[in-house]
Design a protein that fits this description.
The structure holds 2 protein chains of 2 kinds. Chain A has one domain: MetI-like (MetI-like fold), CATH 1.10.3720. Chain A has a two-stranded antiparallel ribbon with strand order 1-2. The radius of gyration of chain A is 24 Å and the shape is flat. In chain A, helix 5 packs across helix 6 and helix 6 runs antiparallel to helix 9. By secondary structure, chain A is mainly alpha-helical. In chain A, 78% of the residues lie in helices and 1% in strands. By secondary structure, chain B is mostly helical. Chain B folds into 2 domains: 46 residues; 226 residues, MetI-like fold, CATH 1.10.3720. Helices cover 77% and strands 0% of the residues of chain B. Classes of the chains: A mainly alpha, B mainly alpha. At the A-B interface, helix 1, helix 3, helix 4, helix 5 and helix 6 of A face helix 1, helix 3, helix 4, helix 5 and helix 6 of B.
């Protein structure tokens, strides 16, 4: 190869390397800046920050537990509602729908993911919240009112509304990953099951079994999105730092707390507390996403080796 | 015995049929929600949309007002984000596709995927500490940088995937003719993958146009037309958030109208991309 070629190649490769390295630099810088800016509260409160139940910025009392609880509870509601629907849509698209329908359906589901968070929030405030206040909530209280989850005053704004909005938002994400995972299962498995006399649904169950770790990955990915979702939830959850068993009560999540309070945090210790809770959110979503990625990769590598065998 | 078998067989068939119906029901439920959201936006948005609304700046409640400055702010910050994010993202994507099979590539790919899932509000806080605190105030520049950081990993991964679709025989052919690696990538591989890379870039732009959380405390908001990057800047999404959470009915109407513009734009980009890729492949 000519001399100019190798110099050009080295230069070319270095420039691209800088671009690729920028991704690692961003993550490292996020971690560094957030730790640096939350040192005041990390040093002052230690682990008590995560277990305290009182959040009173004016008295410099910072307990993050209500927000951690709200984040987990709303995400769990979202997953419970979203998993069956997402699986149903993905199974229908890959296993059952006529080929001509599968692509348009996939496109429409992708559009659901393209709608911005703030728009879900707007829809949540003016359509979903009144619906829950006037119909769904009344129904739940009439028939299941003896459960502690469904007691309390119906305002339409609260944990349940937040969970439902989150469920709508993570459904297209879980669906599209499950779809990819199901498509990666070799057709021969379906043919073998059908040849042995299995019905369509029995065949699908075998396919689901083989795709299990990828489906788990999709669910974990959905969990990661639900945990970090910000605008929609801050608009419908009521932003109240309380831990209540009732799903109709207002609550708050970490992301929602940050969205609604960060701009007003002027004094140093308050700012530090908010950045520390942001750091917790960053670390949790980073780990959850990494886990999801590993689970999905496992399926991909499994089918590759099956293909080569 | 055979009758028993037959019964069992039809029972299995019925279960199979029921499950098909259930999965179809899930699908139509999800699509129904999409149509419900879009039709709500269309109906409520159209009723308060006017040319004046698209040009005006926000005014005190009761005096009308519009989203002209918010549209301009969104355009400026999105353009700035694209200016920073596209070269870095595409460069990183090329690296991952062409040289990314070693440990460095693997780690970078993994971190990029994980960064995509990091909540955008975290990016907002990061840029606040990095840009807003040293500058002493919120600015369009900070907003643009925050959006760029969200773009980079997304563009990197779509670019990589598109470049990997280019057949190796094209690279080998060019290399066999004596072309250096950088020539092969720039003149053979990139043109072949250009449509895919462009659609990925457009989808990333659509995504950041709809972002609100990273702008809340980086760009903040502004009531005026403002082209200066060192000043707080309005955006369509933050304006929608403010109108939607405001106490007055007229504000809510304006939130729906602004949403119609935003969602219309995002759907337009998505449908165009769909159309382009369909023709190509």
């Amino acid at each position: 190869m000519s001399q100019t070629g190798t110099i050009g190649d080295k230069l070319f490769r270095s420039v691209l390397l800088i671009a690729a390295a920028s991704i690692l630099v961003i993550v490292a810088a996020i971690l560094y800046m957030m730790v640096q800016n939350s040192l005041p509260t990390i040093e002052r409160f230690g682990v008590g920050f995560l277990t305290g139940r009182e959040w009173k910025p004016a008295q410099e009392e910072f307990g993050a537990l209500p927000f951690i609880y709200g984040t987990l509870a709303s995400s769990i509601i979202a997953l419970v509602l979203s998993i069956p629907i997402s699986l149903g849509v993905a199974i229908y698209m890959v296993e059952q729908a006529p080929k001509k329908l599968a692509r348009p359906i996939a496109f429409l589901i992708e559009l659901l993911a393209a709608i911005p968070s703030v728009v879900y929030g707007l829809w949540g405030i003016f359509v979903l919240a009144p619906f829950i206040r006037d119909y769904l909530g009344v129904f739940l209280q009439d028939y299941f009112g003896w459960l502690p989850f469904f007691q309390g005053r119906l305002t339409g704004i609260g944990m349940l509304t937040g969970g439902i909005i989150l469920a709508l938002m993570i459904t297209p994400i879980i669906t599209s990953v499950v779809r990819d995972v199901l498509e990666a299962v070799p057709t021969t498995q379906r043919e073998a099951a059908l040849a042995l006399g299995a019905t369509e649904w029995e065949t699908t169950r075998i396919v689901l079994g083989n795709a299990a770790s990828g489906i788990a990955g999709a669910v974990v990915l959905g969990l990661g999105r639900a945990i970090g979702e910000t605008m929609a939830i801050t608009m419908v959850i009521g932003n109240s730092a309380q831990i209540s068993i009732s799903l109709f009560e207002p609550a708050n999540t970490i992301a929602s707390l940050l969205a609604s309070n960060f701009a007003e945090a002027t004094d140093k210790i308050y700012m530090s507390a908010l950045i520390e809770i942001g750091l917790v959110l960053f670390l949790v979503t980073f780990v959850v996403n990494a886990l999801a990625k590993l689970l999905i990769l496992k399926v991909a590598s499994g089918t590759n080796s099956a293909k080569h065998a | 015995m055979s009758e028993n078998n037959l019964q069992n067989h039809s029972r299995r068939k019925i279960i199979s049929r029921i499950m098909t119906l259930l999965t179809a029901a899930c699908t139509f439920f999800a699509i129904g929600i999409l149509l419900l959201i879009i039709s709500y936006i269309a109906v409520r948005g159209v009723s308060s949309l006017s040319l004046q609304f698209l040009i005006d700046t926000p005014k005190p409640v009761g005096e009308g007002g519009g989203i002209g400055n918010a549209i301009l702010g969104s355009a400026i910050m999105t353009a700035l984000a694209a200016l920073i994010g596209l070269p870095l993202g595409i460069g990183a994507g090329i690296y991952l596709a062409e040289f990314g099979n070693g440990w460095f590539g693997k780690i970078t790919r993994f971190v990029a995927d994980t960064l995509i899932g990091v909540p955008s509000i975290i990016i907002g806080i990061f840029v606040y500490t990095l840009v807003v605190l040293p500058m002493g105030r919120q600015s369009g520049l900070a907003g643009g940088i925050a959006l760029a950081l969200i773009m980079i990993p997304i563009v990197a991964r779509t670019t990589e995937e598109m470049i990997r679709l280019v057949p190796n025989s094209m690279r080998e052919g060019a290399l066999a003719l004596g072309a250096p690696q950088w020539r092969v990538t720039m003149n053979i591989v990139l043109p072949a993958a250009s449509t895919g890379i462009a659609t990925g870039a457009m989808l990333a732009i659509a995504r950041i146009t709809g972002e609100t959380a990273p702008l809340l405390f980086t760009a903040l908001n502004s009531r005026f037309y403002n082209g200066y990057l060192d000043q707080p800047m309005a955006s369509l999404t933050v304006q929608i958030f403010n109108y939607a959470t405001g106490p007055f009915e007229v504000e809510h109407a304006m939130a729906w109208a602004a949403t119609l513009i935003l969602v219309g734009l995002i759907l337009l980009i998505n449908i165009t991309v769909r159309f382009l890729t369909r023709k190509k492949f």
